[in-house]
Amino acid sequence: MYAQTGRTTAHRDRGRIDYRRATAHAVLDEAYHCTLGFTVDGEPRLLPTLHVRVGDTLYLHGSTGSGPLLAARTPAGLPVCVAVTQLDGLVYARSWFHHSANYRSVVAHGTAHLVTDEAEKHTVLAALMAKVGAGRAADSRPPTRAELAQTAVLALPLSEVSVRARVGGVVEEDADLALPHWAGVLPLRLTPGLPQPAAGVTAPVPDYLRPVRSPWLTAAPLRGDHVILEPLDPAHADGLYAATADPEVWRHLGTARPADRAGTVEVIAAALRAQERGERVPWVQRSAATGEVIGSTSFYEIDPDRRTVAIGYTFLGRPWWRTGVNTEAKLLLLTRAFDELDAVRVVWHTDARNERSQRAIERLGARREGVLRMHRQRPDGSWRDTVQYAMTVDDWPAARRHLRDRLRPASARP
Q1: 37, 145, 385, 398: which one has the fewest Cβ atoms less than 10 Å from its Cβ?
Q2: Residues pairing with 153 in the sheet
Q3: What are the residue boundaries of the N-acetyltransferase domain, all occurrences included (predicted)?
Q4: Same structural domain for residues 252 and 401?
């Protein structure tokens, strides 16, 4: 517990105050930024900045040219107040007076000092990198001595600390309960969006920036003798554009052939946006022999409750048609669905005019179930009839044996 002081003792709503170290540390560790308060020539100043907690010390990031950080150089240090707030929800009451918010807030008072030891500063900055992404410190260049000299770090020992929080629902006057107004809580959460690579970046999005998803919505890496499936990423744009530039590859797809690399970037971005919405799980296909990007494929119509999934959005460079790549990719995806996700049904959809695709799906062991009329629009705006195929968990054992046999070298077959 942190000891109460005159500055941390609550004078109202005392039920919302907390002095437990674990509670305060949890809020500080979850938040990415704080507000640093101090005075300059007798006037108040507030500075938003990044922070990281290491043990019982809060470190604040800044520039060596900053006024308060220069003031913290003195032996006496800089008296500061630091506030961190996590807003968890808006509370709507039937009356204006009782509207409120759910939140968790930490306020720390004390004297901050400038960190001058180079090793300590390096350790703090590494901890800050780890906070923005587990593994980020090792996945980026450390500062040079010149950069380290330009970076200021303030150290604030955590000793005078309090937590204030509001949780729960609406507080109402009895007389207001019959009013015909909506009341309740609107939860608020800070959630990461889709990572947006900077221009010229060819490295894939690191795992620590990918959201934690259900296995049904995770593009787990899959590897075979002919093909490797890995999570689709903007870094695959150059290879995917080069491998699938043939118009015949896009002839029966629901997306028009990209005219240039930028078009391929948008095809990938659309797939990743669909993944973020939970509608699709896209993979890129690589040649197991050369490592080059050769195509893409996806799960979609994902329904974990009914344990069903569809395989589609598949396009493969023409040099790899009629090789073991497509057969093995489907075997990997079916194994993922039936054996790892415990699916009971896998579905395919294909253009009724695409007889080559229909024959390929039938060779997998899937059964034709019917035609969905005017099911989707083609890139030219015309309506397409879709042939639907499916494989059930009862069909899977025989299909698996058949596909493995097809992939076995002729010399190894009985």
Answers
A1: 145
A2: 61
A3: 227-394
A4: yes
